């Protein structure tokens, strides 16, 4: 295979990931030697996501936790999005360590709230909060290829050296805006109504979905934060009680997870975990559909582990 250049300036080096949306490659700028990531999907994809993702990223750009778009356009049969190259996602890190230290989780979770606050302030609701979409800094001490050893059917023993997590501060970023949408109606300037026509398929990832989303309500700001509560719980516990649910189809799987989320007491879910994390999830569940979250209050709950161990 010969050298492939995207957007006239970005030389593709190797494939580093793939998903239902398409593929991700590492590339380098031919002149500046700056590293970047390139996402691509077929132009004739039935439900293309990259044009919308590029649009949202440009709306959100500015803070360092939003990847910068360097170029977006068409290359032969593909839509291609050139953006900042980042480090491993939080799913890979959590799998390698099993449970993550409370101090690390608190720091990362506070940053996650700030990112979602920025997204919400632009009138956007993210709709797919999960560990896969939160990425650490590009120079994270453990290489992605090393972490991928735990992303297999026969993983090694969990890592026990927490120095890469605790010896320095970390920066988290949010990627993959293909499922994001506006919660503010552009015509009226108001929050989208709670009552919407029923849809056959739910948006997002069932494991982390908010109870309101399970019940068929449109995504709202509160749901992004509730989903974050489940992400935090998984980082602290190493797993979620409903992670191993089996079902004949997606509808049955979503229904089983809903019953568990609704029926397991929070005290049981967060047993052995500082109370602030449980209070965070409870707070998100108590928010009204169109209520603006108090992001400072949410951050304070996640920082309070120091005082209520």
UniProtKB/TrEMBL annotation:
Top enzyme class: transferase
Record flagged with keyword Nucleus: no
CDD domains: STKc_CK1
Enzyme nomenclature, EC number: 2.7.11.1
Molecular-function GO terms, alphabetical: ATP binding; protein serine/threonine kinase activity
Domain Protein kinase, first and last residues per copy: 10-306
Key word Transferase present: yes
Amino acids binding ATP: 39
Family stated for the protein in its record: Belongs to the protein kinase superfamily.
UniProt xrefs under PANTHER family: CASEIN KINASE-RELATED
Name of the featured protein: non-specific serine/threonine protein kinase
Species annotation: Glomus cerebriforme
